[in-house]
Amino acid sequence: MTVAQQFFIFFCATTMTFNCKADYQLPEPTDVTYRWDDQFQVNVSWSWKKPDNLPENCTVKYEVFRYGLPQSVEPRFRSLINNFTVKYFTEDKRSDHWNISIQAVLDPVCGHWKESRPVIKTIKTSKPRTDLVTDFRCSFESNRTKCFWKPVSESVKLNISYRTSEKNDKIRACDGSTSHEKDVCYLNVNNLQFDIYVLVETKTGRNTFKPKIVTPLPKMNIAEDKGKLSLTWEDPRPAVGKCRLKYSVYVTECNSSNVKTLHTKEPPLNIPYNKNCQYKFRYRVQTDEYCISVSSDLSEVITHGENRSPDEMLTVIAIVIPIILSACVILSCYCFQRNREIFCPRIPDPSTIFKEMMMTGNKDSKPISGNLYTPVPEPTENITLVSGNMVPQENP
Ligand SMILES: *[C@@H]1O[C@H](CO)[C@@H](O)[C@H](O)[C@H]1NC(C)=O
Ligand SMILES: *[C@@H]1O[C@H](CO)[C@@H](O)[C@H](O)[C@H]1NC(C)=O
Ligand SMILES: *[C@@H]1O[C@H](CO)[C@@H](O)[C@H](O)[C@H]1NC(C)=O
Ligand SMILES: *[C@@H]1O[C@H](CO)[C@@H](O)[C@H](O)[C@H]1NC(C)=O
Ligand SMILES: *[C@@H]1O[C@H](CO)[C@@H](O)[C@H](O)[C@H]1NC(C)=O
Ligand SMILES: *[C@@H]1O[C@H](CO)[C@@H](O)[C@H](O)[C@H]1NC(C)=O
Ligand SMILES: *[C@@H]1O[C@H](CO)[C@@H](O)[C@H](O)[C@H]1NC(C)=O
């Protein structure tokens, strides 16, 4: 490469850099305003003036980005329209304001134009975010939805209302219960088609969130069947509507510290069964991926069977059976002693017969046979009785 060529490349590069620096920048959006459609949804709009020298065929889009939210992984999105609505829930954030960034960009890249500087707007709620309830959950019943919660403060009166994610749905009050249930109210929602948005307010504070939808735990049945354990569940409808369920079971077998996780959508769930093992189960149910998320709590531990090693079985045979046998023998001896006369009826002794014959006529004679067969005193009972007192008593 000659010096002239090198100089030419250097010259070109410099010119290009110079040209880049000479790019035109788009003007930034102006008049960013926002309006709350309701307590859950905010509509942000802005103006933007197209520069006169921007070629007609360049397409300008607005890149919008929310930040200041804990889960700020929310993707930036590009839109051709100068307004948008966004859902906001107080659980999204530790405070009641967050920032939105709007920037005019060229999509696709167009000539030597480059994007505008971003405009940042802080969006605020009309009431500050306050923690008013914890553990707010709802469960579907046949016709309605029951919600329950723990109030953060017993003394504060809460106003609880809701809407669904259906477009333009209106906020309605959550009906108090007709009985005297505490911290319970009912939504007029009877399907899982839309998300539920709940609003909890006091005069000074607000909580908005999507409640956790739960289903009561359906009872699990365990049956032994040809070397297998067969797990089945009671039908949890109507708590899950038309949704299909996924059952998750956490099993530990014997003493193992590994927990095996099994899933099924179609019970029974069969697992091989070792009779010498104790099985511990916990389970939960949840709706499958094609439905709104509804889940149950995790069950308590349910045990089935006993931990036994085969050696233990031999020990059982080697110790318990002899004990039982000797107990039987002792008992039968005892019975035999007591009922000797039944088992061994008195057989007349030939010598006695002879003596009796000899003494016939002797009026004074008395049969002595009775003495011969007087039952032996029964020592067992006495020994048992005195055994506690055999210890010599010492004078204090
Ligand atoms: C939001 O914007 C305001 C004003 O531009 C700024 O003072 C504040 O630090 C920003 N907040 C966050 C979380 O970025
Ligand atoms: C919002 O966008 C729509 C187009 O979807 C447009 O018709 C309307 O004028 C815009 N509103 C404002 C206030 O700019
Ligand atoms: C936001 O509000 C404007 C009027 O201020 C309206 O024209 C526009 O359709 C709304 N945007 C959405 C996405 O609803
Ligand atoms: C716009 O038109 C000019 C010619 O008028 C052309 O050079 C350029 O590539 C076009 N840009 C786009 C993004 O279509
Ligand atoms: C379900 O709702 C209908 C109409 O709202 C009502 O007539 C019926 O009694 C309700 N059934 C139950 C079990 O609550
Ligand atoms: C409760 O909230 C609803 C919805 O925001 C509202 O219409 C109603 O007036 C409130 N009631 C009280 C007593 O504050
Ligand atoms: C089970 O574990 C305990 C201690 O974790 C141990 O003492 C016992 O021997 C184990 N039993 C079997 C059957 O493995």
Q: Which stretches are poorly predicted, pLDDT < 50 over at least 5 residues?
A: 14-21, 365-396
Instruction: Report the CATH topology name of the domain at 20-124.
Output: Immunoglobulin-like
- Give the strand order of the largest sheet, numbering strands 1, 2, ... along the chain: 14-15-11-10-18-25
In percent, how much strand structure appears in the residues?
25-35%
Question: Looking at this structure, what is the CATH superfamily of the domain at 20-124?
Answer: Immunoglobulins
Task: Name the overall outline.
Answer: elongated
What is the highest CATH level, the class of the domain at 20-124?
Mainly Beta
The rounded Rg comes to 45 Å
- State the distance separating the first and last CA atoms: 123 Å
Number of helices: 6
Examine the secondary-structure arrangement and name the CATH architecture of the domain at 20-124: Sandwich
Number of DSSP strand runs: 26
